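Database export, one record per block. Field names are fixed; values are copied verbatim from the stored entry.
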Amino acid sequence: MSPAPISTLRFPRLLLTGAAGSLGQQLRPRLKACCDVLRVSDVAELGRVAEGEEAVQAALQDKAAVHELLRGVDAVVHLGGISVEGPFEPILQANIVGSYNLYEAARRHGVRRIVYASSNHVTGFYRQDEVIDATMPMRPDGHYGLSKAFGENLAQFYFDRYGLETVSLRIGSSFPEPKDRRMLATWMSFDDLERLVVASLTAPVVGHTVIYGMSDNTTTWWNNTPARHVGYRPLDSSEPFRAAVEARQPVLDLNDAATLFQGGGFVTKGPFD
């Protein structure tokens, strides 16, 4: 049986995984406006539980724990898992097995929509002199990017087979400000992150949509035209930070793969044996 259609912009119970992570901490107070109850989860300590929150510590690779985590949930913002490049085995457990457990539990409990934190590292081996969109083939730049490519394929399968809708967010670089020249293209403010997640939760029809998570930057490698139906309109830009960033990094090494490819330093990390 397919999940019920979304009938309201406010969810009775919304789950945020990875709530103790850097982006989870930003979204945790902001998502309260979208739901009656916000269930937050992580393997790490979750701190003080605010009014209207439920806190559940759970490892994504624990199938039984994830099944209980999804009980009574209407929609999910899935940030949980490992968010950096590293050895394959931990990424396999947290990001690949963990994402499968979450989608299967969501199917069993009739969840209506998932907002999945994918990554720009799904396409990290495109060059910085190319402009791409989500219809182009994946080119992961490491184990982490591979795990996120799996997650996007998982989301497509669960929509095609079961009607469970997902917006996969290929998040760029969400920090208080850009750290280097690369981030002038990939940067997304925390306010734009909130706008992207809320739009992804509330757009009437999404099927499985892939969208790049970036602010309205002057320099960009990503074209979000195929995802305009989501309704995400960024309001911030990396441009006010350009002069300071370029002063810190006036020269680029064009023989460095991290300069040439969109994935930056991820394209040269490893092997890890």
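Remark 1: The helical segments are 22-30, 63-69, 88-109, 143-162, 183-186, 190-202, 242-248, 257-260.
Remark 2: Residues 126 and 261 are 6 Å apart (CA to CA).
End of record.
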